Model the fold of this input.
Amino acid sequence: MSEAFETVHADVIVIGAGGAGLRSAIAAAQANPAAKVALISKVYPMRSHTVCAEGGAAGVVQAHDSLENHFNDTVSGGDWLCDQDVVDYFTHHATEEMVQLEHWGCPWSRKEDGSAAVRRFGGMKIERTWYAADKTGFHILHTLFQTSLQYPNIHRFDEFFCTDLIVDDGRCQGVIAIEIKTGDIKVFLGKAIVLATGGAGRVFRFNTNGAIVTGDGMSMAYRAGAVLRDMEFVQYHPTGLPGSGVLITEGCRGEGGILLNRHGYRYLQDYGLGPETPIGKPENKYMELGPRDKLSQAFWHEQRKGNTVPTPLGDAVMLDLTHLGEAKLLQRLPMICSLARHYVGIDPAKEPIPVRPAVHYTMGGIRTDIHTQTEIAGLYAAGECSSIGLHGANRLGSNSLAELLVFGKVAGEQAADHASRQPPCNNDTLLSFAKDKVAELTALREQKGTEKASRLRHEMAAAMEKAFGIYRLGDEMQTGLDTINELRARYKQVNVEDQSRVFNTEFLTTLELGSCLELAQVMATSALQRKESRGAHQRLDDYKTRDDEKYLRHTLMRYSPDGKPILDYEAVNITRSQPKERAYGAAGEQQNKQEGGS
Amino acid sequence: MRQSPYHRPRDPFWYMRRSVYRRYMVREATSVFIGLWMLNLILGILQLSRGEAAWTAWLTWQQHPLMLTFSGLTLIMAMVHTTTWFAIAPKAMPKFIAGKAVVHQQVVIGHWLVFGLVSLFLLVAVYWGA
Amino acid sequence: MTIPATDNTSETAPSKSEAGITLEILRYIPGTHSEPTFQRFEIPYVEDWSMLDALGYIKDELDSSLSYRWSCRMAVCGSCGMMFDGVPKLACETFLRDYYPRPIRVEPLENFGIERDLVIDQEPFLEKLESVKPYIIDAMANAPSGKPGAPAGHERETIQAGENRQTPKELALFDQYSMCINCLLCYSACPQFGLNPAFLGPAAISLAHRYNQDNRDQGNADRAPALNEEDGVWSCTFVGYCSEVCPKSVDPASAIQQEKVRGATDWALSWLLPKGAR
Done:
């Protein structure tokens, strides 16, 4: 029997109130002041995971830089799996979004003359990363949230947990949500829906992500018939704190921080990123300013060679910032100083910080076209939950904050436009569809099973880390996938002990686990089938190199009710940059020269 | 349906729970003494307007041991208030004045300097005036 | 309130030989409990554990019904404010080692309504935040075409004009106040808010001050009504504890005092200056 529910009507529904969701909601509210925009989030907007981004957001601003440079860095950083028309649109619109944010009050760090300052970042040829000390994501999120408060047509639904999209007649027309503080179910009906629900880093054990990063939106869209793309590409950030996985920004290296192994040796020069640059004189795309995938892979090798530093919380390498001096550290990297002090008991001005790679970002996500439109009419996606084709096989640091602004805006405008052209929803069909979903939800809540969700979660995260880490092996991946499938079967017997309604977080984490398991299966299947090494997907079996002939293609995954995802591929949109060797350090310089120094 | 959140009953002696609250209450309590002493002063002025006899009676009352104790206590309380007030004065200052960062310690020292000078001037004026 | 000796040991509970620590957590589940009571949990003592790790252990291994908010576990999302031994702190930045071997008392943030267990009602704060208009209000925005929701054309024009100039010194006038993570520890520290729930409070005033101090903003007058009414800055009696508990060194007490100075100056000027000159 299905329980009763309330219905809320809106024109545009935005799910997720992080950077992308807020930017979408503002864009939709501006595009049509008469439209009712419902902004639904499972946490208060300022708790969204955008808040954890530290280093900065990319947008070309210096005279000696160019959009072409940003394009080339992004495409080669992504190992040519980027859709180049999307990259072009992105580089052309990133800077205006930084300026827009400035007009909305974002406290960008400044140069003496009052113009915005930019810093170096990994894989970027010229400094173009706008930053607000080392709390860029925090400031972007709060600026967007506070700005959103002035739009009376944005109606916030904070702490509403979305569970299922309502799709009828090939059109997405609503979403089912649990009001967390009452446990009541609400059905939201709208003419256009934007998903901005973030990534799925919590599928892995050791990660830099907040508790909420569980891929709910990706899973919802996938179950509703949208396509998940390139899910095998999961980024390891090279510098997380051992134990907790707390992120230590790439900005540290942008400011001149160096990475040392246990012998005090700057090991990155042995991995195609050298020659060594002088301490205090970092050079773009050399050494510590190489891309994230390369740096994480170098750590893996150093660990195998026994060159890492054993700490009580696991093996680590040392991020040395001591030469920057206390004054600069406090000005440019104040949060890093505080995090190091609290979580590993170290003062970065005096001692190096132990760091190791940690899962950070899902390059893949819900497939969209360049207008953020998904397979399903009326459903748009932006930010980390989407795969618009920007990041390819490896994202460059500071491209994701820029992405959520550029494409968050597009999604909001597209959704508002789509909503204005739609007839009113057909309530009866939608509500009967909703009723079935609500019944499933109630059944899960009341089910008397045998499995404990927290146990399944730990097993899933451990299995994913073991089989789908920095380097992957065919047979290990198969074992990993088998484990995930087994866990999925056990999940059907999950038992929610807590039968109360108000703030029942056990039930919500059980639903999140369901999403994570769904995505783990997609990631595992995609990875197993990609028989090459590219960007963040590196294999150590027979497929150690990139294979453009067979795999210069996006992996597509479709949901099937039998529980086995349907695999497909599609071409990458290559407009002008043909795949070549990815080269950094001196080799990159050499490559540049041969091409006439573009 | 939403049940309204649970509000715990407030502890009537909340101010005893933390040292920072106790210090705060002492600071606020000093004003009671200063207030009473001001009432006394106003009474004095009133007596002055009523003629010499009333004024002299008021003056004599001031020398009563009870009144002396009260005045002494008020002086101590006023000093406590001054100290605590000066200590938090920097918080009410802007972060920069004329482009220069305001140093909290200097603000406190400045307050004490002004306080000292004004007190000295008054003492001298009263002494010379008498 | 009583402390029931609950036996929560499961098969994963630590053996007797391991070091342990006790947490006394205030539990309240509406519909199940008529009023909050303390529940005692014995957990293993791990030196590196933050309170959040300890709560996670309880939720995963001992009692899955324990509810609390958390996310980033790096002191920036502002979700996990709680009282530890009567002091408001972030659970992710508070460590077992600072209390061991004494038992630790864990309660929801003081001065707020309790939704459940350690979860408090934040809705009133959101309303207060909104009332101080925490966004850039600029002279351009008052032009007819520049109102929020105005056609994109106007926005495009101003965007093409590029970013505003703001020197590091101008930024330093407000950056400290922009660091507020809305964790609400300051509201728990404030006895005036405890006595008068209508008080605008430290965080909302700090954010109003942040925009008032921003050289790009022209909105002082728009924020003045909310700040200067009785439940605004004038409800503050300068206890100063808000600044002590702030995990981000925002110093809300200073923001409030400076807004009092601004309010008083504006009021004095309104009497001294002829109407047109104000």
Summary: The first helix of chain A runs from residue 19 to 31.
